[in-house]
Amino acid sequence: MNDEDDDLILADLPDDELVQQMFDDLYDGLRDEIEEAVHILLDRGWEPYNILTEALVGGMTIVGKDFRDGILFVPEVLLAANAMKGGMAILKPLLAETGAPRVGKMVIGTVKGDIHDIGKNLVSMMMEGAGFEVVDIGINNAVEKYLDALESEKPDILGMSALLTTTMPYMKVVIDTMAEKGIRDDYIVLVGGAPLNEEFGRAIGADAYCRDAAVAVETAKTFMARRHNSMATAV
Ligand code: B1M
Protein backbone atom coordinates (compact mmCIF):
# COMPACT_ATOMS: atom_id res chain seq x y z
CA MET A 1 0.00 0.00 0.00
CA ASN A 2 2.76 2.46 0.96
CA ASP A 3 6.06 2.65 -0.84
CA GLU A 4 7.53 5.67 0.86
CA ASP A 5 7.85 4.38 4.41
CA ASP A 6 10.98 2.21 4.18
CA ASP A 7 12.67 4.15 6.99
CA LEU A 8 9.63 4.24 9.19
CA ILE A 9 10.28 3.45 12.84
CA LEU A 10 7.13 1.86 14.18
CA ALA A 11 7.97 2.61 17.80
CA ASP A 12 8.01 6.35 17.03
CA LEU A 13 4.38 6.39 15.90
CA PRO A 14 1.57 7.38 18.24
CA ASP A 15 -1.08 4.68 18.79
CA ASP A 16 -3.56 5.78 16.15
CA GLU A 17 -0.89 6.11 13.46
CA LEU A 18 0.64 2.81 14.47
CA VAL A 19 -2.71 1.08 14.06
CA GLN A 20 -3.12 2.70 10.63
CA GLN A 21 0.38 1.52 9.76
CA MET A 22 -0.59 -1.99 10.87
CA PHE A 23 -3.53 -1.88 8.45
CA ASP A 24 -1.03 -1.04 5.66
CA ASP A 25 1.47 -3.66 6.78
CA LEU A 26 -1.19 -6.35 7.02
CA TYR A 27 -2.36 -5.37 3.56
CA ASP A 28 1.20 -5.73 2.32
CA GLY A 29 1.65 -9.05 4.13
CA LEU A 30 4.55 -7.83 6.26
CA ARG A 31 4.60 -10.37 9.06
CA ASP A 32 7.73 -9.07 10.83
CA GLU A 33 6.32 -5.55 10.98
CA ILE A 34 2.98 -6.80 12.29
CA GLU A 35 4.72 -8.81 15.00
CA GLU A 36 6.84 -5.81 15.97
CA ALA A 37 3.79 -3.54 16.13
CA VAL A 38 1.89 -6.03 18.29
CA HIS A 39 4.80 -6.06 20.75
CA ILE A 40 4.88 -2.24 20.77
CA LEU A 41 1.16 -2.00 21.55
CA LEU A 42 1.50 -4.61 24.30
CA ASP A 43 4.41 -2.63 25.79
CA ARG A 44 2.18 0.45 25.73
CA GLY A 45 -0.39 -1.37 27.83
CA TRP A 46 -2.93 -2.31 25.17
CA GLU A 47 -5.20 -5.22 26.06
CA PRO A 48 -4.49 -8.24 23.81
CA TYR A 49 -8.17 -8.42 22.89
CA ASN A 50 -8.15 -4.82 21.67
CA ILE A 51 -5.05 -5.38 19.55
CA LEU A 52 -6.74 -8.39 18.03
CA THR A 53 -10.02 -6.73 17.20
CA GLU A 54 -8.97 -3.15 16.45
CA ALA A 55 -5.66 -3.64 14.67
CA LEU A 56 -5.62 -7.17 13.25
CA VAL A 57 -9.28 -7.87 12.46
CA GLY A 58 -9.66 -4.22 11.41
CA GLY A 59 -6.82 -4.62 8.94
CA MET A 60 -8.15 -7.91 7.63
CA THR A 61 -11.52 -6.27 6.94
CA ILE A 62 -9.79 -3.88 4.51
CA VAL A 63 -8.03 -6.81 2.85
CA GLY A 64 -11.38 -8.59 2.55
CA LYS A 65 -13.01 -5.64 0.81
CA ASP A 66 -10.25 -5.31 -1.77
CA PHE A 67 -10.24 -9.08 -2.31
CA ARG A 68 -13.97 -8.91 -2.99
CA ASP A 69 -13.50 -6.02 -5.40
CA GLY A 70 -10.75 -7.76 -7.37
CA ILE A 71 -8.01 -5.38 -6.24
CA LEU A 72 -6.18 -8.07 -4.26
CA PHE A 73 -5.73 -11.68 -5.35
CA VAL A 74 -5.22 -15.00 -3.56
CA PRO A 75 -1.39 -14.80 -3.22
CA GLU A 76 -1.59 -11.34 -1.64
CA VAL A 77 -4.41 -12.38 0.67
CA LEU A 78 -2.39 -15.42 1.73
CA LEU A 79 0.49 -13.13 2.69
CA ALA A 80 -1.91 -10.91 4.64
CA ALA A 81 -3.31 -13.98 6.40
CA ASN A 82 0.23 -15.08 7.24
CA ALA A 83 1.00 -11.67 8.74
CA MET A 84 -2.23 -11.82 10.73
CA LYS A 85 -1.31 -15.25 12.06
CA GLY A 86 2.06 -13.86 13.19
CA GLY A 87 0.26 -11.27 15.29
CA MET A 88 -2.26 -13.78 16.59
CA ALA A 89 0.49 -16.17 17.68
CA ILE A 90 1.90 -13.49 20.00
CA LEU A 91 -1.51 -12.74 21.47
CA LYS A 92 -2.69 -16.32 21.86
CA PRO A 93 -0.90 -17.18 25.12
CA LEU A 94 -1.88 -13.82 26.59
CA LEU A 95 -5.53 -14.34 25.80
CA ALA A 96 -5.38 -17.85 27.19
CA GLU A 97 -3.74 -16.93 30.50
CA THR A 98 -6.73 -15.35 32.19
CA GLY A 99 -6.69 -18.07 34.85
CA ALA A 100 -10.40 -18.62 34.29
CA PRO A 101 -11.62 -21.97 35.63
CA ARG A 102 -12.43 -24.65 33.02
CA VAL A 103 -16.01 -24.07 32.02
CA GLY A 104 -16.47 -26.61 29.25
CA LYS A 105 -14.93 -28.29 26.25
CA MET A 106 -15.35 -27.53 22.56
CA VAL A 107 -14.35 -29.30 19.37
CA ILE A 108 -14.07 -26.87 16.47
CA GLY A 109 -13.17 -27.10 12.78
CA THR A 110 -13.97 -25.63 9.40
CA VAL A 111 -16.28 -27.66 7.20
CA LYS A 112 -15.40 -29.76 4.19
CA GLY A 113 -14.16 -27.67 1.27
CA ASP A 114 -13.28 -24.67 3.43
CA ILE A 115 -9.71 -23.73 4.27
CA HIS A 116 -10.37 -20.29 5.81
CA ASP A 117 -9.08 -20.76 9.34
CA ILE A 118 -8.38 -17.30 10.74
CA GLY A 119 -11.86 -16.82 12.20
CA LYS A 120 -11.88 -20.34 13.64
CA ASN A 121 -8.45 -19.76 15.19
CA LEU A 122 -9.65 -16.53 16.70
CA VAL A 123 -12.70 -18.20 18.19
CA SER A 124 -10.46 -20.95 19.62
CA MET A 125 -8.16 -18.37 21.20
CA MET A 126 -11.02 -16.44 22.74
CA MET A 127 -12.71 -19.58 24.02
CA GLU A 128 -9.47 -20.75 25.62
CA GLY A 129 -9.08 -17.32 27.16
CA ALA A 130 -12.55 -17.65 28.64
CA GLY A 131 -11.68 -20.97 30.26
CA PHE A 132 -12.86 -23.50 27.69
CA GLU A 133 -10.76 -26.46 26.66
CA VAL A 134 -10.60 -26.34 22.86
CA VAL A 135 -9.79 -29.19 20.52
CA ASP A 136 -9.13 -27.70 17.10
CA ILE A 137 -9.56 -30.28 14.36
CA GLY A 138 -8.39 -27.87 11.67
CA ILE A 139 -9.73 -27.24 8.20
CA ASN A 140 -11.69 -29.06 5.52
CA ASN A 141 -13.47 -31.52 7.83
CA ALA A 142 -15.75 -34.18 6.44
CA VAL A 143 -18.60 -35.33 8.64
CA GLU A 144 -16.63 -38.43 9.70
CA LYS A 145 -13.87 -36.23 11.13
CA TYR A 146 -16.38 -34.32 13.25
CA LEU A 147 -18.01 -37.53 14.45
CA ASP A 148 -14.65 -39.11 15.32
CA ALA A 149 -13.67 -36.03 17.30
CA LEU A 150 -16.99 -35.99 19.17
CA GLU A 151 -16.55 -39.61 20.11
CA SER A 152 -12.92 -39.39 21.16
CA GLU A 153 -12.99 -35.96 22.82
CA LYS A 154 -16.49 -35.99 24.35
CA PRO A 155 -16.86 -32.20 24.26
CA ASP A 156 -19.85 -30.19 25.44
CA ILE A 157 -19.85 -28.06 22.31
CA LEU A 158 -19.33 -28.64 18.62
CA GLY A 159 -18.23 -25.49 16.75
CA MET A 160 -18.27 -25.30 12.97
CA SER A 161 -16.90 -22.53 10.80
CA ALA A 162 -17.55 -21.76 7.11
CA LEU A 163 -16.57 -18.71 5.08
CA LEU A 164 -17.96 -19.67 1.71
CA THR A 165 -21.56 -19.72 0.58
CA THR A 166 -20.70 -22.98 -1.16
CA THR A 167 -19.41 -24.69 2.02
CA MET A 168 -21.86 -23.42 4.63
CA PRO A 169 -24.62 -25.91 3.64
CA TYR A 170 -22.25 -28.69 4.74
CA MET A 171 -22.97 -27.75 8.34
CA LYS A 172 -26.45 -29.18 7.86
CA VAL A 173 -24.95 -32.44 6.62
CA VAL A 174 -23.04 -32.73 9.89
CA ILE A 175 -26.04 -31.86 12.05
CA ASP A 176 -28.37 -34.18 10.11
CA THR A 177 -25.88 -37.02 10.44
CA MET A 178 -25.64 -36.39 14.18
CA ALA A 179 -29.44 -36.55 14.34
CA GLU A 180 -29.52 -39.80 12.33
CA LYS A 181 -27.07 -41.33 14.80
CA GLY A 182 -29.17 -40.14 17.73
CA ILE A 183 -26.41 -37.95 19.18
CA ARG A 184 -27.55 -34.48 18.07
CA ASP A 185 -28.92 -33.51 21.47
CA ASP A 186 -25.81 -34.67 23.31
CA TYR A 187 -23.98 -31.55 22.13
CA ILE A 188 -24.41 -27.82 21.93
CA VAL A 189 -23.86 -26.97 18.26
CA LEU A 190 -22.59 -23.46 17.53
CA VAL A 191 -21.89 -22.21 14.02
CA GLY A 192 -20.16 -19.15 12.64
CA GLY A 193 -18.55 -17.53 9.64
CA ALA A 194 -19.05 -14.36 7.64
CA PRO A 195 -21.77 -15.57 5.21
CA LEU A 196 -23.98 -17.10 7.91
CA ASN A 197 -26.77 -15.46 9.86
CA GLU A 198 -29.21 -16.35 12.62
CA GLU A 199 -31.86 -17.54 10.23
CA PHE A 200 -29.41 -19.93 8.58
CA GLY A 201 -28.32 -21.23 11.99
CA ARG A 202 -31.93 -21.96 12.91
CA ALA A 203 -32.72 -23.50 9.51
CA ILE A 204 -29.91 -26.06 9.73
CA GLY A 205 -30.74 -27.03 13.31
CA ALA A 206 -27.78 -25.45 15.11
CA ASP A 207 -28.29 -24.24 18.67
CA ALA A 208 -26.95 -20.80 17.79
CA TYR A 209 -25.21 -18.72 15.17
CA CYS A 210 -22.30 -16.67 16.55
CA ARG A 211 -21.54 -13.41 14.77
CA ASP A 212 -18.00 -13.14 16.10
CA ALA A 213 -15.59 -14.65 18.59
CA ALA A 214 -16.85 -12.59 21.52
CA VAL A 215 -20.43 -13.67 20.81
CA ALA A 216 -19.22 -17.28 20.53
CA VAL A 217 -17.77 -17.05 24.04
CA GLU A 218 -20.90 -15.48 25.51
CA THR A 219 -23.19 -17.94 23.74
CA ALA A 220 -21.09 -20.90 24.84
CA LYS A 221 -21.15 -19.69 28.44
CA THR A 222 -24.94 -19.21 28.34
CA PHE A 223 -25.53 -22.70 26.97
CA MET A 224 -23.11 -24.24 29.46
CA ALA A 225 -24.92 -22.53 32.34
CA ARG A 226 -28.26 -23.86 31.05
CA ARG A 227 -26.76 -27.32 30.73
CA HIS A 228 -25.48 -27.25 34.31
CA ASN A 229 -28.86 -26.02 35.55
CA SER A 230 -30.80 -28.72 33.75
CA MET A 231 -28.38 -31.38 35.00
CA ALA A 232 -28.78 -30.07 38.54
CA THR A 233 -32.59 -30.21 38.21
CA ALA A 234 -32.43 -33.74 36.83
CA VAL A 235 -30.44 -35.03 39.82
CO1 B1M B 1 -11.24 -16.29 0.80
N1 B1M B 1 -13.07 -15.70 0.44
N2 B1M B 1 -11.33 -17.51 -0.71
N3 B1M B 1 -9.38 -16.65 1.20
N4 B1M B 1 -11.30 -14.86 2.02
C1 B1M B 1 -13.68 -14.78 1.41
C2 B1M B 1 -14.44 -15.57 2.47
C3 B1M B 1 -14.63 -13.92 0.48
C4 B1M B 1 -15.86 -13.33 1.21
C5 B1M B 1 -13.78 -12.82 -0.20
C6 B1M B 1 -14.62 -11.90 -1.04
O1 B1M B 1 -14.97 -12.22 -2.14
N5 B1M B 1 -14.90 -10.74 -0.50
C7 B1M B 1 -15.02 -14.95 -0.62
C8 B1M B 1 -16.28 -15.78 -0.34
C9 B1M B 1 -17.42 -15.38 -1.24
C10 B1M B 1 -18.62 -16.24 -1.00
O2 B1M B 1 -18.60 -17.37 -0.65
N6 B1M B 1 -19.75 -15.62 -1.19
C11 B1M B 1 -13.76 -15.80 -0.68
C12 B1M B 1 -13.39 -16.63 -1.76
C13 B1M B 1 -14.28 -16.55 -2.99
C14 B1M B 1 -12.27 -17.48 -1.72
C15 B1M B 1 -11.79 -18.46 -2.81
C16 B1M B 1 -12.89 -19.27 -3.51
C17 B1M B 1 -10.94 -17.62 -3.79
C18 B1M B 1 -10.43 -18.36 -5.00
O3 B1M B 1 -9.75 -19.33 -4.87
N7 B1M B 1 -10.82 -17.85 -6.13
C19 B1M B 1 -10.83 -19.38 -2.02
C20 B1M B 1 -11.55 -20.59 -1.39
C21 B1M B 1 -10.62 -21.46 -0.58
C22 B1M B 1 -11.38 -22.53 0.19
O4 B1M B 1 -11.69 -22.38 1.35
N8 B1M B 1 -11.67 -23.63 -0.48
C23 B1M B 1 -10.37 -18.43 -0.97
C24 B1M B 1 -9.10 -18.47 -0.41
C25 B1M B 1 -8.65 -17.60 0.56
C26 B1M B 1 -7.21 -17.58 1.07
C27 B1M B 1 -6.57 -18.95 1.16
C28 B1M B 1 -6.41 -16.71 0.13
C29 B1M B 1 -7.37 -16.81 2.44
C30 B1M B 1 -7.58 -17.76 3.66
C31 B1M B 1 -6.32 -17.90 4.49
C32 B1M B 1 -6.65 -18.54 5.81
O5 B1M B 1 -7.70 -18.41 6.39
N9 B1M B 1 -5.67 -19.26 6.30
C33 B1M B 1 -8.68 -16.07 2.22
C34 B1M B 1 -9.11 -14.98 3.02
C35 B1M B 1 -8.12 -14.48 4.07
C36 B1M B 1 -10.38 -14.37 2.88
C37 B1M B 1 -10.92 -13.09 3.52
C38 B1M B 1 -10.24 -11.93 2.82
C39 B1M B 1 -10.73 -12.91 5.01
C40 B1M B 1 -11.30 -14.02 5.88
C41 B1M B 1 -10.84 -13.78 7.29
O6 B1M B 1 -9.87 -14.35 7.72
N10 B1M B 1 -11.51 -12.82 7.98
C42 B1M B 1 -12.47 -13.20 3.21
C43 B1M B 1 -13.17 -11.87 3.07
C44 B1M B 1 -13.93 -11.50 4.32
O7 B1M B 1 -14.38 -12.32 5.09
N11 B1M B 1 -14.13 -10.23 4.50
C45 B1M B 1 -12.51 -14.21 2.12
C46 B1M B 1 -11.13 -12.41 9.30
C47 B1M B 1 -11.77 -13.34 10.35
C48 B1M B 1 -11.35 -12.88 11.73
O8 B1M B 1 -13.17 -13.22 10.22
O9 B1M B 1 -13.42 -15.56 9.32
O10 B1M B 1 -15.43 -14.00 9.42
P1 B1M B 1 -14.14 -14.47 10.01
O11 B1M B 1 -14.41 -15.00 11.49
C49 B1M B 1 -15.14 -14.27 12.44
C50 B1M B 1 -16.65 -14.55 12.43
O12 B1M B 1 -17.15 -14.92 11.16
C51 B1M B 1 -16.84 -15.58 13.50
O13 B1M B 1 -15.87 -15.20 14.46
C52 B1M B 1 -14.68 -14.82 13.79
C53 B1M B 1 -13.92 -13.85 14.64
O14 B1M B 1 -14.66 -12.73 15.04
N12 B1M B 1 -16.66 -17.00 13.22
C54 B1M B 1 -17.14 -17.96 14.07
C55 B1M B 1 -15.99 -17.63 12.24
N13 B1M B 1 -16.04 -18.95 12.41
C56 B1M B 1 -16.72 -19.18 13.53
C57 B1M B 1 -17.04 -20.38 14.16
C58 B1M B 1 -17.78 -20.33 15.33
C59 B1M B 1 -18.19 -19.09 15.86
C60 B1M B 1 -17.88 -17.90 15.25
O15 B1M B 1 -18.07 -21.51 15.91
C61 B1M B 1 -18.58 -21.53 17.15
UniProtKB/TrEMBL annotation:
Tell me which residues make up the B12-binding domain: 103-234
One Pfam family hit: B12-binding_2
Span of domain B12-binding N-terminal: 9-103
GO terms for CC?
cytosol
Q: Which domain of life is it from?
A: Bacteria
Instruction: Print the keywords alphabetically.
Output: Cobalt, Metal-binding
GO terms for MF: cobalamin binding; metal ion binding; methionine synthase activity
Instruction: Identify the PROSITE patterns for this entry.
Output: B12_BINDING (PS51332), B12_BINDING_NTER (PS51337)
GO BP annotation list:
homocysteine metabolic process; tetrahydrofolate metabolic process
Q: Which family does it belong to?
A: Belongs to the methylamine corrinoid protein family.
Could you identify this protein by its name? Cobalamin-binding protein
Q: Which organism is it from?
A: Meridianimarinicoccus roseus
Q: Taxonomic lineage per UniProt?
A: Bacteria, Pseudomonadati, Pseudomonadota, Alphaproteobacteria, Rhodobacterales
